[in-house]
Amino acid sequence: xxxxxxxxxxxxxxxxxxxxxxxxxxxxxxxxxxxxxxxxxxxxxxxxxxxxxxxxxxxxxxxxxxxxxxxxxxxxxxxxxxxxxxxxxxxxxxxxxxxxxxxxxxxxxxxxxxxxxxxxxxxxxxxxxxxxxxxxxxxxxxxxxxxxxxxxxxxxxxxxxxxxxxxxxxxxxxxxxxxxxxxxxxxxxxxxxxxxxxxxxxxxxxxxxxxxxxxxxxxxxxxxxxxxxxxxxxxxxxxxxxxxxxxxxxxxxxxxxxxxxxxxxxxxxxxxxxxxxxxxxxxxxxxxxxxxxxxxxxxxxxxxxxxxxxxxxxxxxxxxxxxxxxxxxxxxxxxxxxxxxxxxxxxxxxxxxxxxxxxxxxxxxxxxxxxxxxxxxxxxxxxxxxxxxxxxxxxxxxxxxxxxxxxxxxxxxxxxxxxxxxxxxxxxxxxxxxxxxxxxxxxxxxxxxxxxxxxxxxxxxxxxxxxxxxxxxxxxxx
Length: 478
Hints:
alpha/beta, 3 domains, 6-stranded antiparallel beta sheet, rod-shaped, disordered C terminus
């Protein structure tokens, strides 16, 4: 198997024949012999050799160095010069062409073999390296992220096209300058300009990456970016050689997030309007108890806030309070507005409203246990409630809060079958039922709220429900 195809460029026939014989003995294949520069260029184009042995001194208008320069202009080929003693000017010209070796005439077979094999291996390695560099350069250039490389002192050594666009800099202006003079990274958490990017990113998540930073340019322009910082160490990990900074604009993401928040706000508003419409549908059947569900929801939220519930949980509690009597659409209007005590049959119908409300709401995908709270808001800790006769912690927290708020509001308000009994009597009711009928912590919180001046007709500052719907609404009668 041939070790490589060699083009011999030598104008002395005897020397040329000797070199060709040596190449054959050493296992190399002859790609041609040329005595002039013009012939060498022609044979190189026709035969595509792997390497050229080039005599420095050739007859004709092109000597070996001129021929090599033209050869390299046309295509990359490794060249070894064959030379006798040469003057300094000739050697200087030869060095400019970057040959892969020199062989001084006369030379031995082992010298020729070593020079050829080393040149071919070195040329193959350089070719792979250049291909890798081109691939890396093309890849980095096509990335949408801005890539900035620095040396160990923070001086910029490279930036890709995206970095040029993001930073508004030319490559010539950026290379050799400190990145700190070209742009600044600001920590959005405290507004401070960052000096040590690696420490910042590690502090933001255990990895050299920060998702929400601010890029600030000397022009005053700012842009939200995600940032990653990767240190470059010398082989063996001895000494920092530089860093690679990758900046990704997140302006579009921020815009999309803002649009999503606006869309969610609109959807939430529509959702709340739908909930109020459902509540209004039930309450319009009973004009004597207008606004009961909203007042219960507001008091329940005040209690929940005092108990330390999250804003999300409070919103779910508000929904449950606003809808807790929606099942009364099933109850005939004459029962809802009856001015005398209900019969056993009428009471049974009335007591069915939690289950009807549950049936109405269970198909709605609430992110909170709204349907369950509606179902259980008439349960009591001692099991005397309805519809399931649940005990203690079997009743969900939202339902336990609604139970207290519902009793206080109902007893404080006018009903068709009785006048308002007053807030004091309502508070006595939950106080006497504390721990038996009602959750003691919830009762204590409700009493504390009322002691601080809470009033149904004046929304507290920490209310978590919207303004009440128009009157003409209904309430519980059981």
